[in-house]
Amino acid sequence: MIELKNIFDRAVNKVKENPGTLLGMLYPYVFIIIVIIGLYYIANLDNVADQKIPAVTPDTSVTKTLQLADARIVPPIDIFKYKEPAPELILKGKNLYNSICASCHNETGAGGGPASVGLNPAPRNFTSPDGWKNGRTLSGIYTTLQEGIEGSSMIAYNYMTPEERIAIAHYLRSEFMTDAPLVTDEELAALDQLYSLSEGVKIPAQIPVNSALEILALESEQKLKKIEDAIATIERDKSVQAVRIFDYVAADKKLAVSSLALSENWKESENEFINFLALNVNQNGFNGRIFNLSDDELNLLYNYIKNLL
Ligand code: HEC
Question: In the prediction, which pLDDT does 82 show?
Answer without folding.
Answer: 93
